[in-house]
Amino acid sequence: MALTPAAGAGGDSPVSSVPIHAARPLNAEVEWDDFDPQAYVRHNYADLRPDDRELLRRTRDFFGGATLADARCVDVGSGANLYPALTLLPFAHTVDLCEWSVSNVRWLRRQVDGYDELWDPYWQVCAEHPAYAALPDPRRRLAQVGRVRRASVFDLPRATWDAGTMFFVACSISAERAEAEDAVGCFLGALRPGSPFAVAVMLGSAGYHVGPRPFPAVALQRAEVVAAIAAGAYDVSVHEERPRPPLRDGYLSMMLVTGRVRG
User: Fold this and answer.
1) Average per-residue pLDDT in the chain?
2) How far is it, in rounded angstroms, from Cα 140 to Cα 122?
3) 193-231 per-position pLDDT tens digit
4) What total number of domains does the chain contain?
């Protein structure tokens, strides 16, 4: 189990496709506070892409059928991505948005108080499901239940939450596979037995830039991600999305894994 803090950089989708030629840093060696959330959001989420739409739709349907109510929910490594937290809103007593980067924590706190209009199309996808359509004011709801916490994925308390999401975190917080595997284990360990979860990763990622700054990634393969998750979960379902055109150079696909945590 890694002991160093992790940055939930939110996604492994960069702001430029400049090739990365750098050492293979561990998570604790990265200057996560230099992460630029505004640049990241502009590049990745200003327009709702078909691949994000499909992952959002599938996550919505999964939680919509999970028989959740008044749940303690968590989004781990929220970074500068709000849509995983939105998928938890109708079922949440609280939603803890856990993030390590100070710049991302500041961004999240502003968004929780009243998120930007660019997230409205993401909610509209959610609202195609009756459980979400029944929620009349998602902005107000997030302000009521959302709680931004500066927390490392590696330091999460065990068996604490009833449902959770972790999008584009394990693949994009370190250049070492062992830390990616630790991140998955820590996330699943933070959920109570039987809790539904959704995990998304970039497969085959070579690293990414946010503005001029490079950040590390691990070139994960489908089989190893599924094996790491299945070790602590059941009712596992996998969907792989190959975007056309890709968001950037240097990755193969996006993968969503849903399931429930083993007891």
Assistant:
1) 90
2) 16
3) 999 999 999 899 988 889 888 888 999 999 999 999 999
4) 1
Q: Which residues contact 38 (CB under 8 A, 6 or more apart)?
A: 80, 107
| Pick from 7-16, 24-33, 57-66, 136-145: least confident | 7-16
What distance in Å separates the CA atoms of residue 121 and residue 137, rounded to the nearest whole number? Answer: 14
User: Would you give the distance in Å from CA 204 to the centre of its chain?
Assistant: 17
Does the pLDDT of residue 123 top 60, yes or no? yes
Domain hosting 224: range is: 27-261
C-alpha 249: how far from its chain's center?
Answer: 20
Decide if 21 is inside a domain.
no
Q: Is 167 helix (H, G, I), strand (E, B) or coil?
A: strand
User: Residue 179 is inside which H or E element, if any?
Assistant: helix 177-189
Q: Is residue 89 part of a domain?
A: yes
Is 170 among the domain residues? yes
Q: What is the DSSP letter of 243?
A: -
CATH number at residue 114: 3.40.50.150
In-domain check, residue 210: yes
